[in-house]
Write a structure and sequence with these properties.
Layout (H helix, E strand, L loop, with lengths): L1 H8 L15 H14 L11 E9 L12 E9 L4 H11 L13 E6 H6 L3 H5 L4 H6 L8 E7 L2
Parallel strand pairs: 1-4
Antiparallel strand pairs: 1-2, 3-4
InterPro entries: UBL_ZFAND1-like (IPR057358)
Protein name: ZFAND1-like ubiquitin-like domain-containing protein
Length: 154
């Protein structure tokens, strides 16, 4: 459902922006330079601890009527030392999204990637318990990736 919504935004035959091919270091460097010049984030994060991504918020029927707050491809930076939960908390505060992750019976606001949604194998649950640095080291996410912020029933 969420993947269908993402893909519906990009019309067939139109090439989606290059997010930096993992096997092309020059393309990754150019994309990262462009991203760094536009990225939004907490300015107190030291430059050497920043990781740069594109972020899209996709609302859905379980998402507390947040449809008007949807956005696509916002350039952001996060601290690689933060846990994914702290990243979600900061992003929710920055874009005024409802975050009830501390209540067990409510839909959770999660930060994921298209790859994790495609695999659909509890990695999204594991992802929430890790530090972003560990996800980068293990190549679950790569700098310049598109991250997705959405609500899921977990």
């Amino acid at each position: 459902m969420i993947l269908a919504k993402i893909r519906s935004e990009y019309k067939p035959g139109i090439k989606v922006k290059n997010r930096g091919a993992r096997n092309n270091p020059l393309a990754l460097k150019v994309t990262l330079m462009k991203l760094k010049s536009q990225a939004i984030g907490l300015e107190s994060i030291p430059i050497e601890e920043r990781e740069y991504f594109y972020l899209s918020f996709i609302s859905n029927e379980i998402g507390y009527n947040q449809e008007g707050k949807e956005f696509r491809d916002k350039p952001i930076f996060l601290c690689k030392e933060w846990s994914v939960g702290k990243c979600v908390d900061w992003l929710a505060q920055k874009w005024s999204l409802i975050n009830k992750n501390n209540q067990s019976d409510k839909p959770k606001l999660i930060l994921t990637s298209e790859g994790l949604l495609i695999n659909n194998d509890d990695d999204s649950k594991k992802c929430c318990e890790k530090q972003s640095n560990n996800l980068i080291i293990s190549n679950v996410i790569v700098s310049t990736d598109l991250l997705i912020l959405t609500y899921l029933e977990i």
